[in-house]
Amino acid sequence: MKTGIHRWALLALAVLAMAIAGPGLAQQVTGVLGSPSATASISGKQLPAPDPKFAGVIQDDALQSKPWWAPRIVPPKGAPNVLLIITDDAGFGVPSTFGGVIPTPAMDRIANEGLRYNRMFSTALCSPTRAALITGRNHHSAGFGVISEQSTGYPGYNSIIGKDKATIGRILLDNGYATSWFGKNHNTPAFAASQVGPFDQWPSGMGFEYFYGFVGGDANQWQPNLFRNTTQIYPFEGKPGWNLVTGMADDAIDYMTRVHQIQPDKPIFIKYAPGATHAPHHPTQEWVEKIRAMHLFDDGYEKLRERIFENQKRLGVIPKDTKLGPWPSQVLKPWDQLSADEKKLFIRQVEVFAAYAAYSDHEIGRVIQTFQDLGKLDNTLIIYINGDNGTSAEGGPLGTPNEVAFFNGLNQLPVDVQMKFYDVWGTEQTYNHMSAGWSWAFDTPFSWFKQNASQLGGVNQNMVVSWPARIKDKGGLREQFVHVIDVVPTILEAAGIRAPEMVDGIRQAPIEGTSFAYTFDATSAKAPTRHKTQYFEMMGQWALYHDGWFLSTKVNRAPWEAFGPANPDPLNNQVLELFNLNSDFSQTTDLAAKNPQKVKEMKQMFIAEAKKHQVFPMDASVAARIVAPRPNITAGRSEFVYTRPMVGLPQGDSPLLLNTSYTVTADIEVPAAGAEGMILTSGGRFGGYGFYLLKGKPVWLWNMVDLERLKWEGAEALPPGKHTLEFDFKYDGLGAGTLAFNSFSGVGRPGTGTLKVDGQVVATRTMPKTLPMILQWDESFDIGSDTLTGVNDADYKPPFTLTAKLNKLTIKVDRPQLSPEDMKKLDAAMRNNKVSE
To answer: Residue 810 is part of which domain span?
Structure first.
């Protein structure tokens, strides 16, 4: 009897092993299958792995039966830990590792212990690059043709990563890894970022078990809107001098140490995505002083560019015969033509940017060092990508103390206005960005910037990779073409894990990237590039790489020209240029006139790639897409009622009070001692509105991107008892039959606001302009208190909790209803007219 049971059990275990491993794959097992301590790798063909059948023996009583436990799933033996680092808005010439003047010792360390890559390519914009990075599919294939805030109702542009494109987090999680994501998350749709979800497009819903960071494109590093998993960290209580750059490093170190202490043999995957160096540039004063003492920028941006270029040639990270294109005097004023104040301001701007980059690299170094301190560094694959696109020029030629102003069409604030912020540049009092002259220099040896997908300054990043147990060619240079879609297949090959065919019962779209693990060996230093063809497209600018040739559209829009006319036919209404990158590293010699047939062939190749990867319909508009309609939990509603305090509702899911008439009514009860505090606010110090009691007096305030504050205020404090407060705003624009197709199609037009107390008018004033596009993106819609920064520092400090009882808050929006014909006219006007100044 017992012998029969034993033989049956052995047979069952053998069958089970085959089932877990799958056909043609050898299962890796530790311990005895069926015992509590057994582990096993899986085939990975289907995720999650199907539950194995019970392989024990069940008789009438336990003494005659045999228990059995399913093995714990682990990755294949030797699978490395993975630290995937991607910084923000940093061009080729930013880090010292690739010739820059900004010290980046952590990146230097990885380069010296591993490999440098000088042909790592992005998509030219942040969240599109990040979607490609975590899925291994092109950005349009993953729904991220642009950022979510510009999303449109087409598969390539809806900012929804499809269920058929499981992320690297999900794949590694189901194969036994601990998976986490720190820092920037700009891949949750703006219309799915509230606490009602759905959460399937949040990091935790995409396979990252632990998330600590911010949702959206940028964040105030001093007072960020932080989340742990899907829960807002509120109230946010940063200690004096606290900064997210250090805060997220601390949290990552705590996480990896905790995992190690609990289960030392469990491999860790970390996606580490600091906000640096995306605006606002917010380093600590210590780092600003370190950079200022180095006097790196005193001789201006052209000299900086030349110095970086010479450094790059000396280090050998670019070919010796690389050419440096001319300075773009037509768009960026040469340094010697600047006024003394302009030079002073611009140097301040860039010193803060450089401090931010150096500070971020330092904190990345702490995370890397922790892998060593835990004894894990030898078997850790570190991929450190410098920039998700080229350096940002969205500050415009003059820079800005408030990036929110740029997104509302104010992209060239006079220098005398900006000088008022000189002493607080980079502190919590600014949402700052630098002059585009520095951005051009930091993209050396290339030209143009972030957003310019047809120019190497927008898409040619650099990268360092180390894996001591595997990569022995320390300090080597790799010049093969690599794209961010290649990272996922590289990690999977390194871990010995296959890309799944099915996930949650959904057949997966093929991985579109090509593993670059073949470059890890010294013998492959000069191996031919395996990634042969790659398209690029961003807001109507496009290019195609094929076997070293690069077909690209000539730049027809600078990044700060977001509100101008859009190319109506971005596929064909273009000047095409042709470059041979094999002999022209920096894209300086146009060969299109000499090779018309090559141009024609490559354009057809681009069209084929565009059709394959959901690039059509192409759209060259920028700002128009920000105000375009998209899914929102407020859609179709004109009335919103709240009966208790609530904070943290993001802009993309809250009632929008821009470009519309509206009425806000608050029924409150003032206690005997009087009351003050915030009733309703959205946005913050750098753009937003607030409805509050100040020393008992009712106030409605509009913060006009920190340049002006318009206030409606009652003359007397409210006496104890019940009161009805009302702010009514009549908007002059965008009405059916009264359409004024100027001033960017009627957005940002004037209006008149009236403040009432118990039905009596207490204040009326006209706004000559209103905010046309956005409030401060990283702040939220709050009722009963104010999270993070306030809309008026002179009146109160957050959280400014309401001490009156809020019985009811009602918002009624009277948004103009346009006919289909009006909508066509509106769309055309938004693409062809500028915002009024």
So the answer is: 639-832
